[in-house]
Every structure is written in C-alpha cells, then in structure tokens.
C-alpha cells in the first residue's frame, strides 16, 4: 500500500497518453515564451481653470507641474510652469511599462518652496479603460487627491469554516482566516514600507479585529498568520448531523482586511483594504484567492469642477508576443518585398497602402526592414514609384507619401545619435542663454531692440547651420546610402535638371530632419522638457530659417552646403557609424550604494548623477561636475537586476566589472528598465561578459542568494542575453511583426476591398471608370497584387488562430494574475 500511494506501482503510460503528455509539456514551454509587452505614448497638453490649493485667489500664484504614476509609483514629471491657472505643459512622453499595473494617474501639483508640494487634483484611469481614450485628445476633470484613495497592491487570503466541540459537548462554529501574503504594495517616501494587516469580522452588531506582525522594509510581505472568529451561537452536537451555518448570520457577516504602513513616530498610513462576504463559503468549504486592495469609500468628497481640467493625449499599447516561429511566415513575406515587381504588389507596400491613415503603422515595418538590412532596396523602389508619378522637379518628395514616411522614420531611428552629436551642444547653448530673437514688430515686448534681436538670431542660425554643414563625417552610413539612392533616382527621372539631385537630398536632411529637430528638441531627446514659450519662439525662427537655407534656391549660392550634400550622398564608405565621438546614451539622478561599506543603512546610499556614453559609465556628485568614478564600457562584465531583498529597496540593478560591483537604485521601474536596456546594449559585445551572476549581495561572509561563502564564487543565475544587431537599432523583430499583424487585422476590410479591386481589374476589360472606385489603392499589376493579398490573408488567419489558442487559457479569476476586485467601504 505505501508503495502504491507513493507511485512506485503506477502503470506505464500507453503511446497516445505519452504523446498527449509530451504535447502538454511542449504547450507549457511554448506559453512560457509568450510575452506581454506594454508601452505608453502621449502628451500632457494643458490644464485649465486650476482651482486654489488653499486660501482665496491662490490660483493667481500657482506654479504647477504634472506627474504620471503607475499605480502609486511616479514615472514621469514635467517641468514647473510659472504662475498660471491655465498652464500649457506641452510635454510628450513615451516609455515601456516593465511591470503589471492597475491604474494610470496624472497629478497636478502646486510647487512649494518651503514645504511639500501640494496636490491640486488628479486624473485616474484604470488600465482596462485606457483603450477608450487611445490616440485622441480628451479633456479630463481633475478630482481631489484623497490619501484614503491612493492605494495599490494585492492580498492573498484563505477562509474556511470549522466546527469546534466545546467542553460541555456542544458544537461551535469558527471562521478561520489566513493572511498569506501581499504583492506590489506602494513605496512610502520612495522606500519599501513596513506593512501590517488588520483582520476584522464585521456584522450588524459586532466588529472583532485582530492584527498581524509588522514586516520590515518590503513591498511583498509574507504574513502566513491565521486568525479565528466565532461566527454563530453554540448548539447541541446531537441536534446537528453535519455542519451548517445559520442563514441570518452568514448573510450579514463579512471579513475586512486593511493594510497599513507602520509609522513609529507618526500616524500609520493606509495602504488599502478589501472586504469578503462570509456567505462566499456557502458553496465552497474553503475559499482561497487573491484580492485587489481597494480605497476607502468614505474619503473626502469634492466637486471636481472646482479643481479644473487637464487635456491629455494617450496611446496605450499591449502586445501579446508569441514564440518566434509563429511570426516566421509573415516576417518572410514582408522581407521579400524589395524583390517583388512591381513594388506596389509587395506585402510591405500593401501595409502602407491599407493603413495610410495611421501614420504609426509604417514604423514597425521600417524597423523590421532595418534590422534585416532590407530597408535601402525597399525605400529605393518605393521612391522610384513616387518619382514616376511626379511631374515637376521642384515638387519631389514634398508630400506625405509612403516613401517620405519611411525615410522620416528611418532618420529618427538611425540618426538619433547623429542629431545628439551635431545639434545638442548648440541647442543647449540657445536654451540656457535665452537671448531674445523676436523680429516680428507685432510680437516685440516693451524695451526690446529689434536690431539686437536680429543679431542674436543671425548668430544662432550661423552656429546651427555651421554645425550641420560640418557634420558629414558623423552621418550614419545607412542614411548616406539612402541619400545616394535618392540622388541617383532623381537624376534618372529628371535628366535635364542638374540641380534636382541636391534638392532630393536637402528636402530630407534639412527640411525633414534637422529643421524639425531644432523646432522640437524634446521630441528627439535633445532636451528633457518642452522649452519655455520664449525659447520655443526662438527655436521656431531658427527652424524656419534653416528650412529656407536648406531649400535649393539658397543652397545653390553656398558652396559649403553643396559640399555637405555631396559628402552625405557620395560613394565614399565610412567606417564610422556616428559613434566614434563620445555620445551620451542616458544620464540621470540615481541612488548609489557607497563602495566598500560593510554595514547597511540609509547613509550608505547617496544621490549621484549617473552618465553612460558609448565609451564609459561614470557617476558624479552633481550634473556637470567632475566624475567621481569612471568605468570603461569595455570592462563591464554584466548588468543585471538586483533582488529587492538585497538592500530592501526596489528598482535596483548592479554593474559587475573588474572591481567591486556597482549597486544602483533607479528612481522608478521605468527608469530601472531603461538603464538596464541601455547598459545591456552598449556592453553586449564585450569579450569578458559573464555567463552567470549573483542576484543578491555578499554580506556576513556569504552570498545571500546561494549562500556560497566564497566572495569569488561563480554566479548562481544565468545572465540576460542580448541579441540585437547594433546599438542604434534596438529592435525586437517578433514584437514589430506582431504590431504589423495588429495593424493589418484592424484594416481587414480594406484588405478585402483591395482584393476585390484586383479581381475586378483583372477581369474587366472595358473603360477604366471602375478603377475610380479603388483609386485609394496603388494597383499596378492586379494579378501579382491579388496573389500577395491571398498569401497575406492566409498567414493572418493562421496567426490569429495561434492567438486564439493561447487566449483560451486566461488566468483563473482570483489568481495572482487575475485578482478579485472586492467590495469597498
């Protein structure tokens, strides 16, 4: 019997059962490779009629700023806008969301010099509701910021009913509540909290409360504490044949769990609550589930109209990325596009044609083609098609066509570091010096001197234009290849015009690249925030002048400009990819653990300015100060996350090099993810990269992760692998292909209409009036286009089937991934 129970005598599986078991195992491994990737893009536009924080007419003195929070973790902050009740923030933002979240919130704060910043109001949007506002601007009313509503996290509970026989032989009924653990509790003042839970049995005439122990410095406390409550009167055991809860009691009782942060010297901070009715045990003798923590329902009430409103533009994207093999057919069909004749019959061109109204649909295709070195032949073919339909040389590449959209996106991706090297120093000088350049008489302020302003503008324009025309050696080879192709195609299309070869290149590099970056430096990561109105006006004037100087009429008079255009579109190969000069890839304020300290404590963490270039990683006491420590990028052996338990701090990572590891805490989860990404990319080709690492620290004579006592012991966890082609092209091909699939699926009706148009054009031999119905599509060869469309739709159907298979296995309600939304007070 013991042997049978322990499984020693289990019969062998037959062949079908073995195949089924193997298939299940493969499916589980397959699902493990599914990734849910989230990103948020948008703009904090402006606020209107912000209400007074306190006191009469306080709005006249408001200096406000806006923040973005994932649950209660701040991940973005605008600059402070001076003294206005209706500030225009104009701040664009984009970030990858590296963790699950429940709510996205926007807070407006009034800046205070001598005390904590005061909240004016907030806009909170649950994750499930983000799709309602995606892609469009909306006005949102500000609501009051109530401490009892600022909650996040989950709690894991188990409840069961027991019968207890008393000393006199009667039976009593007890409710047993086990608090197992919590996840994702908020940070308090930037640090992990000291949480504890109170458990109350609440009814019409009772409220019995019990309390757990306090857990120190953790956002994921493990409580594992059990509490007992009597839920009904005792009764004679002989009168009950089995356990039964009285109807009147079970309908009115509920368990209330409150989470608190223990404050030794002040009032404890409310973290959230959940309420579970006891009647849930009618059907299940044991109830075990995860619950979302909820705000208190009795928070302060206030009319949101009194607080003002906020205009936002949001685009939230959640990609369910399947295993790579699922995307191979679609990826291969797209990569064949440059070889398809005519190019309009290719899958990539069809994507651009059917998703013409959605500008962002081209970007994933561009990224995919760039990664596989197929961009230049594709864009050359598309540009040739556009030139065939261009009648005058002076209008080439002026419209918003597929060719111009592809080249615009390519320049933003490939030319990011080129812009930083060329324009950032002079843009910083313009923004920091803040000299007035207004030359419009109608916009001059009192005391302005138009001649002085004109001179200021000329100096700035000369510096910007000189920086551009002297930058040819930094121009990325890929951009040079595209410009060379455009130049050749323009000469071929208009052989009688000797100047068209230059205007073909200048229309992109001056008008669509440098001039746009000068106009909106924050959109190209040249500045961290949207410039002030006066500086923004200066940049607008400079940008317009650069556009004028970049037009052919001005370029033809300047030999230096023609030389620059020749150099960036010549056949001379460039060894440099724009990375030979030191390029700042990321910098910002962090908390760094002091090196060599043996004891733990707050004082061992100090604020430092961390800076990484393509050459070195350094930290400084403050921005702009000399480096306190410099680590060559080539000497970095690993960049990995650090367990929260190492220092009881979230968002930590480590840089492993030849000396002691550098332990760093980022400001939030988004910042930590970006630091890991940038450092991982810049060090991915280092010869001395480690295969394993320690996810915790070495203290008290042992590694806390694996308990190995040797300080030089090999790591106990595999290092993260980085497999990208190069630093500038940070491209996840599976994700880009999934994004393309999503765009195509949302335009399935247009694909069907295009297929019908091809069928009609191939059969109908009469006048071309019928083609007018399909004029929005580019169809040169109906049969070729029809064949591509059929392949595309078949591949999409199979990919959708793969998604449907995996969507059937949704997380069970009450699980960690799909917690129950409980009642609120």
From TrEMBL:
GO terms for molecular function: GTPase activator activity; zinc ion binding. Residues 20-140, 151-291 form the C2 domain. Residues 357-551 form the Ras-GAP domain. It holds the Pfam family PH. Residues 583-684 form the PH domain. SMART domains: BTK, C2, PH, RasGAP. Keywords: GTPase activation, Metal-binding, Repeat, Zinc, Zinc-finger. It comes from the Eukaryota. GO terms for biological process: intracellular signal transduction. PANTHER family: RAS GTPASE-ACTIVATING PROTEIN 2 (PTHR10194:SF21), RAS GTPASE-ACTIVATING PROTEINS (PTHR10194). This is RAS p21 protein activator 2.
């Amino acid at each position: 019997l013991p042997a049978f129970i322990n499984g020693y005598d289990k019969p062998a599986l037959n062949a079908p059962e073995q195949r089924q078991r193997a298939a299940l195992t493969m499916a589980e491994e397959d699902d493990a490779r599914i990734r849910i990737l989230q990103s948020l893009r948008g703009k904090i536009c402006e606020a209107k009629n912000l209400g007074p924080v306190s006191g009469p007419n306080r709005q006249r003195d408001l200096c406000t700023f806006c923040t973005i929070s994932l649950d209660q973790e701040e991940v973005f902050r605008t600059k402070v806008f001076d003294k206005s009740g209706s500030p225009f923030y104009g701040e664009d933002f984009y970030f990858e969301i590296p963790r699950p979240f429940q709510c996205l919130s926007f807070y407006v704060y009034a800046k205070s010099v001598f005390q904590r910043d005061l909240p004016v109001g907030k806009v909170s949007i649950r994750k499930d509701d983000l799709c309602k506002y995606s892609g469009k601007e909306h006005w949102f009313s500000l609501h009051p910021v109530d401490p009892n509503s600022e909650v996040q996290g989950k709690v894991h509970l188990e409840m069961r009913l027991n019968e207890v026989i008393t000393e006199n032989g009667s039976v009593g009924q007890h409710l047993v509540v086990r608090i197992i653990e919590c996840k994702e509790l908020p940070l308090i003042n930037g640090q992990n909290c000291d949480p504890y839970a109170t458990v109350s049995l609440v009814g019409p005439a009772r409220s019995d409360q019990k309390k757990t122990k306090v857990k120190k410095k953790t956002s994921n406390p493990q409580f594992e504490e059990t509490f007992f409550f009597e839920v009904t009167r005792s009764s004679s055991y002989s009168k009950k044949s089995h356990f039964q809860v009285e109807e009147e009691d079970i309908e009115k009782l509920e368990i209330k769990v409150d989470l608190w942060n223990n404050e030794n010297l002040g009032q404890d901070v409310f973290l959230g609550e959940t309420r579970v009715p006891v009647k849930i045990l009618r059907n299940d003798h044991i109830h075990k589930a995860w619950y979302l923590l909820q705000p208190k329902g009795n928070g302060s009430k206030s009319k949101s109209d009194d607080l003002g409103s906020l205009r936002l533009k949001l685009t939230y994207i959640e990609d369910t990325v399947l295993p790579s093999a699922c995307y191979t057919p679609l990826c291969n069909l797209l990569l064949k596009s440059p070889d398809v004749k005519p190019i309009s019959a290719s899958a990539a061109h069809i994507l651009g044609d059917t998703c013409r109204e959605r500008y962002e649909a081209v970007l994933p295709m561009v990224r995919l083609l760039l990664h596989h070195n197929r961009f230049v032949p594709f864009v050359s073919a598309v540009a040739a098609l556009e030139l065939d339909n261009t009648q005058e040389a002076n209008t080439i590449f002026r419209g918003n066509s597929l060719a111009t959209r592809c080249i615009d996106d390519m320049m933003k991706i490939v030319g990011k570091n080129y812009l930083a090297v060329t324009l950032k120093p002079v843009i910083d000088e313009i923004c920091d010096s803040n000299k007035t350049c207004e030359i419009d008489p109608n916009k001059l302020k009192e005391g302005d001197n138009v001649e002085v302003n004109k001179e200021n503008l000329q100096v700035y324009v000369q510096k910007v234009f000189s920086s551009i025309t002297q930058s040819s050696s930094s121009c990325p080879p890929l951009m040079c290849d595209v410009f060379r192709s455009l130049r050749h195609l323009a000469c071929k299309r208009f052989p009688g015009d000797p100047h068209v070869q230059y205007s073909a290149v200048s229309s992109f590099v001056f008008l669509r690249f440098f001039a746009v970056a000068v106009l909106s430096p924050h959109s190209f990561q040249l500045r961290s925030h949207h410039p002030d109105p006066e500086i923004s006006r200066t940049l607008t004037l400079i940008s317009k002048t650069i556009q004028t100087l970049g037009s052919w009429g001005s370029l033809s008079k300047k030999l230096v400009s023609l030389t620059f255009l020749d150099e960036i579109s010549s056949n001379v190969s460039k060894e440099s990819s724009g990375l030979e000069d030191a390029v700042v890839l990321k910098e910002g304020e962090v908390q760094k653990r002091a090196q060599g300290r043996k004891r733990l404590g707050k004082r061992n963490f100090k604020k430092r300015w961390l800076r990484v270039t393509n050459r070195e990683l350094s930290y400084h006491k403050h921005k702009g100060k000399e480096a306190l420590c410099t680590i060559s990028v080539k000497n970095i052996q690993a960049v990995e996350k650090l367990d929260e338990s190492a220092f009881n701090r979230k968002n930590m990572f480590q840089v492993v090099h030849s000396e002691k590891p550098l332990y760093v805490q980022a400001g939030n989860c988004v910042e930590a993810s970006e630091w890991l990404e940038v450092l991982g990319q810049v060090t991915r080709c280092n010869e001395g990269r480690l295969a394993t690492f320690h996810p915790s620290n070495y203290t008290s004579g042992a590694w806390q992760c694996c308990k190995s006592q040797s300080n030089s012991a090999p790591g106990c966890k595999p290092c993260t692998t980085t497999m990208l082609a190069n630093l500038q092209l940070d491209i996840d091909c599976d994700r880009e292909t999934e994004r393309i699939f999503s765009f195509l699926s949302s335009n399935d009706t247009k694909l069907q209409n295009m297929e019908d148009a091809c069928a009609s054009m191939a059969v109908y031999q009469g006048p071309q009036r019928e083609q007018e119905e399909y004029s929005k599509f580019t169809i040169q060869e109906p049969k070729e286009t029809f064949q591509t469309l059929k392949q595309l739709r078949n591949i999409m159907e199979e990919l959708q089937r793969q998604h449907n298979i995996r969507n059937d296995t949704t997380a069970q309600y009450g699980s960690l991934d799909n917690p129950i939304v409980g009642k609120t007070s």
